[in-house]
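Q: what does this look like with NAP bound?
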Amino acid sequence: MNLLITGAGRGLGYELARIAAARGHAVAACIRSAEAEGELAALAERYPGLVRIERLDVTDETQAGELAARLQAAGFALDAIVNNAGILLGRGGGIASLELDEVRRTFEVNLYGPMSVAKHLTPLMRDGRDGAKIVVHVASEAGSFAGAYGGDYPYALSKIALSMFTKQLNDELRPRGIRALAVHPGWIRTDMGGSSAPLSAAESALGIIDLIEGTTEVPAETWFVDYTGRAMPI
Ligand SMILES: NC(=O)c1ccc[n+]([C@@H]2O[C@H](COP(=O)([O-])OP(=O)(O)OC[C@H]3O[C@@H](n4cnc5c(N)ncnc54)[C@H](OP(=O)(O)O)[C@@H]3O)[C@@H](O)[C@H]2O)c1
C-alpha cells in the first residue's frame, strides 16, 4: 500500500511510519521542516525505496496543494491517508482564563489541517472496493460527548469537530470505496501524552496499521473506533 502520514517526525506519527515501512508499505512521511532529522532520517536511510520525506505544515494549504502535485508527478497514488498531526493547548485552565487564540490555533492544526489534507490529497487516492481505501483521522476519546470531563476547550472541541468531519467525509467518499475512520489511539507515551501514559506509541501504531490493512475489520457503518478497532461512543 501507499500511505501518507502527517506529523511523522515524532510520537505516534513516527511509529506509524516505522511500522508501515517494516511491513513493506511505501510511506510519504510528512513533516514540517524541510529535512528529516533523527530517527525519521534514519528510517528513510533504512528503507530508501519505501520512505519518502515530504514537507507539510498542515496549516498551510498551499503546501498541501504542492505536495499533491509532487506526489502526482511521481505517480505516487494513495491507498491511505493518516491525519495524525495534532496539538494540545490550554487544557484545564478554565473558561475565565481561556486564550481564544489557543482555540483558533488548535482548530487550525486539528481540524482545518485534516480538511486541507483531505481536500488536496483524497483526489490522489485510488478507488477501492468495500472500503479498502481509508482516511484515518487520529481523533480522541477526549473529543467525544461520552468522554468529556470539563475544561478541555481547545482540544476537545477541535477533536469532536474532527469526528463530525470524519462522518461527513466517510459518507461522501463511500461511492469511491474509500472510508474515513476516526481513531482514538489510546493514552500513549509521547510528548503530548507524557510518560505516565499506559500505552506505548508503537502498540497504538500497530493497531492502527492493522486497521489500515484491514486485518482488524470494522463494520461498514462504524466510523469512530479505538486503535484496536473497538467501536467508541461519540
Ligand atoms: N498522546 C496521546 O495520549 C493522545 C491521545 C489521544 C489522541 N492523540 C492524538 O494523536 C495524534 C499524535 O499525537 P502524539 O501523541 O504523537 O503527539 P506529539 O508527540 O505531540 O506529536 C505531534 C505531531 O504533530 C506534528 N504537528 C504539530 N503541528 C503541526 C503542523 N502545523 N503541521 C504538521 N505537523 C504538525 C508535530 O510535528 P513537529 O515535530 O514539527 O512539532 C508532531 O509530529 C494527535 O492528533 C493527538 O491529538 C494523542
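The two ends are 30 Å apart (CA to CA). The longest strand covers residues 178-184.
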